Amino acid sequence: MNSPDASAIPRPDTVYYFGTCLVDLFYPEAGMAGIELLQAQGLRVVFPQGQSCCGQPAYNSGHRAEALKVARAQLPLFLEDWPIIVPSGSCAGMMRRHWPDLFRGEPDEARAVAVAGRVWELTQFLVTVLRVRLEDKGEPVRVTWHASCHAQREMGVVEEPKALLRQLANVELVELKRERECCGFGGTFAVRHPEISAAMVGDKVEDIAATGAARVVSGDCGCLLNITGALAAGEVPVRGQHIAQFLKERTHG
Amino acid sequence: MADAAVDFAAASTEALQDRQLRTNFRRAMDGLMSKRAVQFADQAEWHAMRALGASVRLRALAKLPELLERLEETCTRNGIRVHWAATTDEANAIILSIMRGADARLAVKGKSMVTEEMHLNAFLERHGIEILESDLGEYIVQLDESTPSHIIMPAIHMNTRQIARLFRRKIKEAEDTEDVARLTDLARRVLRRKFAAAEVGLSGVNVAVAETGTLCLVENEGNGRMCTTVPPVHIAVMGLEKVVETLEDVPPILSLLPRSATGQPITTYVNMISGPRRPGEKDGPREVHLVILDNGRSGVYADGELRDTLRCIRCGACMNHCPVYTRVGGHAYQAPYPGPIGKILVPQMEGLEKRGELPHACTMCNACVEICPVKIPIVGILGRLRSEAVHAGGSVKGAGSHASRAEALVWKGWAATFASPAAYKVATLAMATLGNAAPSALPLLKEWTSARVKPRFAPESLHRLAAKKGIPDA
Ligand code: SF4
Q1: Can you give the pLDDT at residue A1?
Q2: Can you give the residue ranges of the 4Fe-4S ferredoxin-type domain (chain B) (predicted)?
Q3: Chain segment B175-233, per-residue pLDDT in tens
Q4: Which of A211, A151, A156 is nearest to A178 (CA)?
């Protein structure tokens, strides 16, 4: 729905990588795996060390000036005209869809819009622009896919990650009954409304358990924190993993 | 509860504990979602339809003041008496005076959410006028001395057994049955007697046409038609945003509304009311009144970004698809409009001091935005309301009422840290070394760990890993 037009983007030699703060703090291995997947496609990956966060936490809490300040600090890190790859649908959505609003009327609006227009969610980029072909080197496993709300509804990423999983010969993908339903994370929602959030993630865990999958794969670390946290609390023996790490694990043997 | 803040959190927590309620909602919403999906299976048609629907509503709003004047003119020409009400109190008073003029003791009403907004029933009863809800769902809710939990399906929170029990308790002639047809038949018998006896019939308005002075009313049961044609006086009540420009603007809305709401291709009845009974006509009321209510809407209208709120055609699809609504049901919102549209509309009408927490009752999953047939950017608007709640000087009533110095400081600190690479580096190092030692009893962590284990900070950040592996910096 919102996917950038792939035909307009020639296969680049170099890409920027925006790791996001959650990946940085909680899932650095997944972040690294994303970089290595891109490198495995022959790309040069640049990781600007000055990066921190897309500004979403403040933006969604109503503190837009603070969100703007943090977003603005990211702009000079992406000066070249290279695609910016983000291993998170939520942060990619913030940058691509909300930065233009956030910077509206600001002196650096044009620059923010230009940067936003180069943002891609990782799996979307792998499938649409790089047209990767993956070779599975892993043991047979059954997995299920959790779709992040912002990846699907802000970035228009629905089929891409599943298409990647389906390329893996030994991976059986079982779809969730309510694949498109929110897991109940929602940033501060999880702590502002812990009971509703718990009810939502509880249903998600039930749905995951019902698939009989050994692993639940997702492209968003917010969802992963929430879902794996609830799986562990409920002692449900399903492992959660970021898709980048899962793909890397399968293709590197 | 005049001006006290309404506690959504407490009400939703209570609702979550009601197993039956949760099952009822889950089942009903699942059914509605799949019925709607069948109606819009053709994606190309859906996109074309909603683009048309949105454009009709946008055009109407762009010319709203002009269209309202036009509507008053055409209605008046048709013999409909038009009344303007700035507040719900004014609207109630207007309706009471019309009723007094008609010597009314009993009024029947077809479904109208605006009158819920006005608490009209309680008001009329206080003034000695009996008012009977005639929509089956509303009738059930009224018997139960409760309020609607959904804007299209007011009694959706109850299952058949609960309704059967209620009928046995409240209706003298009720038999001992849970058969839906028999229950409906019983309600029909009760209602029929009232239709014939009522001096006034009340209704809502789905769409009012400025060009022709026509009031359109859609419904499934025919009770709306009874309310608007049998009693000698008909009073229609609408929010001022319900107007469209021409008759041609009506079909797109009539097509989107039932398909989005209940997954029906069309509704059973479409009433188009263009005035009282004319000489020589056999039926219809001898007086028709139209009450046009503002109740904060013109304030919403004045703000270019918030104005989109008024595009709503009240189909309820956003609540059917809302994961929060599905869990807690409509009553938890304690408002005439629950779910996503309620989260943006109610705080604007009632003020953020009372309703400032409502925009936070959302994970921002965007399911409502994806489904709304007139493309209201619901999540964008609630983001704006979150911001208004903590900043004084905004345009929404109660702006700044949730401002907290402590919270503002936290975000300032956050911004300072995250906008400076050096500070960020220090902070991530500190979090990685200290974060995992934090006790679960700390605020926020306590809420988080009520259903999940504590997240663990990685020993080395991605920044460090990338540097170690020689990933170029620029
Ligand atoms: S906001 Fe959209 S989906 Fe919700 S009731 Fe209004 S028109 Fe329907």
Answers
A1: 40
A2: 303-332, 354-382
A3: 889 999 999 999 999 999 899 999 999 999 999 999 999 999 999 999 999 999 999 99
A4: A211
- Look at the block and give the residue holding tokens 């005076």: B97
Rounded Cα distance, B60 and B55, in Å: 8
pTM value is 0.94
The partner residue sitting opposite B389, judged by closest CB among A51, A58, A62, is A62
CATH number of A6-128: 3.40.50
Subunit contact A17:B471, Cβ cutoff 8 A = yes
Q: Which long-range contacts (CB under 8 A, 24 or more apart) does B73-78 make?
A: B73/B213, B74/B209, B74/B210, B74/B211, B74/B212, B74/B213, B75/B208, B75/B213, B75/B215, B75/B290, B76/B213, B77/B213, B78/B213, B78/B274, B78/B275
Amino acid occupying residue B30:
D
Q: How far apart are CA A144 and CA A211, in angstroms?
A: 7
From A66, which residue of chain B is nearest by alpha-carbon distance? B415
Which residue, among B405, B445, B452, would best test binding to A if mutated, counting the most A CBs under 10 Å from its CB? Answer: B452
Distance in angstroms between the alpha carbons of the first and the last residue of chain A: 35
Residue B438: which residues within 8 A CB-CB, separation 6 or more?
B445, B454
> B365, B318, B454: which is closest to A204 by C-alpha?
B365
B324 contact residues in A (CB cutoff 8 A): 193, 196, 200
Query: Any residues with CB less than 8 A from the CB of B104 and at least 6 apart, and which?
Result: B129, B198, B199, B200, B233
Q: Verify whether the Cβ–Cβ distance A25 to B452 is below 8 Å.
A: no
Q: Tens digit of pLDDT for each residue in B254-306?
A: 999 999 999 999 999 999 999 999 999 988 999 999 999 999 999 999 999 99
Q: Output b/e per residue, B308-331; b: 16+ Cβ within 10 A.
A: bbbbbbbbbbbbbbbbbbbbbbbb
User: What residue spans in chain B does CATH classification 3.40.50.10420 cover?
Assistant: 62-295
Contact residues, chain A, for B369 at CB < 8 Å: 153
pLDDT digits (tens, 9 = 90+) for B177-188: 999 999 999 999
Give the integer Cα–Cα distance in Å for A221 and A42: 26
DSSP letter, residue A126: I
* CATH number for the domain running over A141-252: 3.40.50.11810
Distance CA A71, CA A61 (A): 15
Complex ipTM, two decimals?
0.95
Which SS3 state, helix, strand or coil, does residue B132 take?
Answer: strand
Residues in chain A with CB shorter than 8 Å from the CB of B385 are 62
| Residues, chain A | 253
CATH homologous superfamily for B62-295? NagB/RpiA/CoA transferase-like (3.40.50.10420)
Domains A6-128 and A141-252 share a fold: yes
Are B367 and A32 inside 8 Å of each other by CB? no
